[in-house]
Amino acid sequence: MATTGADILSMHAQSTMNKLPLVRRLEAVGFRAWPASSVQYDGSWQVRLTAGHPSKRLNSVVPLDPSDYRDLDIRLAKAQRKFEAYGRPMVVRETPLASPMLIELLQHQGWTRFEETIVMTADLIDLELPDTLDHLPSHDIGRYVDASLLVDKADPMLKPALAEVVSGIKPPSGLFVIENDEAGPVATTLCVQDNDLAGIMSVSVVAEHRRKGLAIEILTSALRWARMRSARTAWLQVGAFNEPALALYARFGFREAYRYCYWRPAGEA
Fold it and tell me: N or C of the chain: less Cβ packing under 10 Å?
């Protein structure tokens, strides 16, 4: 029997519904792993705002129920006022939990879709980790924050805000730094263990020291630490077009769980 267009749409809808529980769980642990300073709810929308740090994960409207599409115009305007009060540009985060009617409205109003990201997971139980030099996590938040800003070549003025975010993480965290005697910090990662889930919040290597195995080394150390603490599944987020990072994570058995992106109003960059 031939498969029709309606059949394909039905299968796609069923596939999306089947993965919603996983999406909800990973979104929840993601919120705890990267906490915003202000979290408010409007229905099932989570409005996340952080005055000191520009991260979109800390400053966005995150819809959490596909069936919640009441008073969309009113609620968007209300959220806009909150973002203006914080001095932040209005951003909506689209995951599989967002209502299709909300996305249709954003499109109709000329909002721009940008920064597609893949959320990936890997089974830690049977994962064979590379035999590399092991690095123990630091508990010194100041040292980690300094190293992270240097490795990412980020604005040093973000230090207080980044330190506040890292200090606000409630689940156990492993702060990993690889240092070079001459260059100082050359690689960093942050692993947050939330019960049986371990989130890799970033893997950064100084540009001049890439392709030397440092990313493999520090990621292996973080995953080994998480597994020793009884984590069973690792998760992370990576840009959809970051081919080197995607290749690295594929080597560790990471596979796509779902994708998200952001929307901003027309005229905003």
Answer: N
